[in-house]
Amino acid sequence: MSKRINIVLPDKTLAVLDRVATKGKRSQFISRAVLHFIESQGVSGTGYETPKPAQLWLPCLP
């Protein structure tokens, strides 16, 4: 299940996001980036099991 939220990003961040995420895949890319960041920082207790790295990024890239 997904939930719509509103966020504010700096213009530079949005420009980079538009270059790396295919059209219609922004939310998926942001979600996976956040989960990757949390895992890489060693934050546990999220209760979310993420896919393997290759499965994580390939669907989002152009």
Q: What is the count of DSSP helices, taking H or I runs of 4+ residues?
A: 3
Low-confidence stretches: none
C-alpha termini separation: 25 Å
Whole-number mean pLDDT:
78
Question: Assembly state here?
Answer: single chain
Description:
The chain has a domain at 23-41 and 51-62. The chain is globular. It is an all-alpha fold and 62 residues long. It is built from three helices and no strands.
Secondary structure: elements and pairs:
Layout: H1 11-20, H2 26-40, H3 53-57
Can you summarize this structure?
The chain has 62 residues and is mostly helical. It has helices at 11-20, 26-40, 53-57.
Task: Please tag this protein with its features.
62 residues; mainly alpha; 3 helices; 48% helix; globular
